[in-house]
Amino acid sequence: MTADEQSASARRWTPDAVTAFGRTVGTRTAIAVLAVTLLALSLRFYALGARVFHWDEGRVGYWILRYAENGIWEYHAVIHGPFLYHVNKYLFQLFGASDFLARVPVAVVSGLLPATAWLFRERLGRVEMIAVGLFFAVNPVVLYYSRFMRNDVLLAAFMVHALAFYVRLFDTRKPRYLYAGTLMLALAFTTKENVLVYVVTWMGAAVLLLDHRLRLADGDRTAALPGPLGEAARAYVAAREDGVSRSGALSRDALPRFGRGVLSSRWTPHAVAGLVFFFAIVVFFYAPRSRGIAEPGLWKAFSNPGTFPAVIEEATVGSWESFVGKWGEGNQKSYIKTFKSLGAVLWAGAPVLLALSVVGFVVDRFAGDRPRDLVSFAGYWGFVSVLGYPVIVENAFPWEVVHAVVPLAIPAGVGLAIFVRWGAESVADGDAVSATLTALFVLLLAGQVAAAAVNTAYLHPADRYLDDAEQNENKLLQYGQPAEGLRPTLDRVRYAVNRNDGTDVLYYGSDFYVADESQNDRWAAGGGWYDRLPLPWYTEKYGAVVDSTTDLDEVASNPPPVVVARAEDREAVAQRLDGYRAFEHELTLWGSRTVFFIDREYLRPAGDSSASRQPVAPPAGV
């Protein structure tokens, strides 16, 4: 065969070979992303019901149980969006209420976050996709609150899912991604009111991306990076083609072209249908339910269509007014104090992610022809959240940090991939010292993340301190978490309730007193009900008949099998009870010592286990 014939043969076979190689690499990457997603789900489902409900979980859980019982629900911004109410109501009716099942929706939605990396495959390299997925899976802040029945992780996850589908829509022009993204966006609006902050942040990030088109100069911008960082960036630039079929940056006329495409005859029906789809989901979730009362309700409207306008108005206009009003006041405290409080949580739960997000964002900005829009967008979104949330939050609770950590996982994954690729380049070049140092550095980072995740999510999920010396405070916990050790006593309460007729649980004292217990059947509850939390979730779940009093003589007259009082009333109550055993616990991390008096006749038999639950061990391999 002549040289020309060999050349022609090479030209003929190379495209097929490259395509086959691409398919193989793509399949391996997809399998790796799938494996990370399964890891994320496993970490979230392992011992998901072990930790006793937090105060906030108990409050929402109780209202879901009442809603499932009486069929009455209406939106109140103070208890946040309707997603968990409606989804968990159906789950409880199908499978029975439990701590585990109540947390399942959050665990599933957040556990699927690593899978979104695959939707970014036109924008991220192979190593970057896996790294981003790992940060979604194991970051301690995200992991802890993914095992928590609260809306913050739901909101952040739905918005990342929405972004991923919309990016995929832009890359493929396939209408199905429009509907998938719109579904995720609409569900985000059903979780928590600070979705409005996300919308504003996204708009700001989009403006900054436009600035990229207008201001950033061409050329080798890695020269501006100092020392080892510049060296790592140049190695990264050399290898960034791995699996990225496009630059990840928009051309100057891409947005106008996309806008014209949306307005074209092909996209107009999809745009209109997407808008209708969005509002249909919002109306379904926010529409009131009013079984048994003389008020408009969603299901009533199907038998009385004339009430549909009132239902839709309440689900949209009425909910919107309440929705916006929730964020009207913002932070009334010192910005610096709030920033320090949230910053302490960031430093405790996401130091590696935070540092690598800066590295990934900066290097991507100075690498190649121009920064990639996805990395810049997520970086702006996350960094603005770090600086902005101290302005808007009412309280510096640790779960607020989730809204910065989740978007920063994307530039952090890029940052981690830089060092991985740098190490690979060192191996290829025979530079053993650089390769070893890079490997040790990456292992050190991984070890820090894994240790923090295991400590907070499994070993000390309800402990104020992470060490026996009580020097290392668990910054991820919020004050409303009952201290470790309450679970065995709750099991004793359930055992007593199941074997008693009449009043099962009597609360004593002004802290717990409610003049009429029926006030607690619908939001909002009366009197001292809130100081009982999270106990109402458990007593309602056990089917207990509950009463309360401030009269010690009433305690003595005909005591039920369980009497609950504050620790300062322990002696006075104990003198009026005969044959009861006392169990004392904190209903919050500190400052709320409460005594459970349980009739010895209703305690478990001697052979029945009632030992205190030990800290949950981490899953194998973590």
Briefly, what is this?
By secondary structure, the protein is mostly helical. The chain has 24 helices and seven strands.
Characterization of the model:
The chain has 24 helices and seven strands. It has two domains: 13-428 and 439-459, no CATH class; 487-602, D-Maltodextrin-Binding Protein, domain 2 (3-Layer(aba) Sandwich), CATH 3.40.190. The chain has helices at residues 3-45, 55-70, 83-95, 99-111, 116-119, 126-138, 140-146, 151-172, 175-189, 195-215, 227-239, 254-262, 268-286, 298-303, 308-325, 335-349, 351-366, 373-392, 402-428, 432-459, 487-497, 535-542, 552-557, 570-574; strands spanning 72-73, 289-290, 505-508, 546-549, 562-566, 580-586, 593-599. Strands 4-3-5-7-6 form a five-stranded mixed sheet. The protein has 622 residues and is mainly α.
